[in-house]
Amino acid sequence: MPRAMLDYSKTVLQKVSFDARLFAKELKKAVSRLLPNEIEELKIWLQQFIVDKPELQPSLLLIKQNN
Questions:
Q1: Measured between alpha carbons, how far is 57 from 67 in angstroms, rounded to an integer?
Q2: Cα(first)–Cα(last) distance of the chain, in Å?
Q3: Tens place of pLDDT per residue across the chain (67 aa)
Q4: Which domain holds residue 35?
Q5: How many structural domains does the chain have?
Q6: In the chain, what are the helix, strand and coil shares in percent, each to the nearest 5?
Q7: Contacts of 3 (CB under 8 A, 6+ apart)
Q8: CA-to-CA dists, residue 66 to 3, 47, 53, angstroms
Q9: Helix (H, G, I), strand (E, B) or coil at 44
Q10: Distances in Å between the alpha carbon of 23 and those of 1, 2, 13, 15, 19?
C-alpha cells in the first residue's frame, strides 16, 4: 500500500501526457501528496518518461523547485 500513491500518480501522468499544461498541473498535485523519497522516485521516472517528449521537459523544473 505505501507505493499506491506513487503508482497512481505515474498512471495519471501517463494518461495526461498529451497536454503539457494538464501534465504540469497533475505533476504539482503529485508532488504535494507524495513523501520525499517518493518524489525522488518520481523524478527518476519522469526523467526517463520525458526523454522523447520535449513538450513535457519543462515540467521537470516543477520537481526541482519543490525540493
A1: 17
A2: 24
A3: 568 999 999 999 999 999 999 999 999 999 999 999 999 999 999 999 999 999 999 998 888 766 5
A4: 4-66
A5: 1
A6: 80, 0, 20
A7: 38
A8: 20, 16, 22
A9: helix
A10: 24, 23, 6, 9, 6
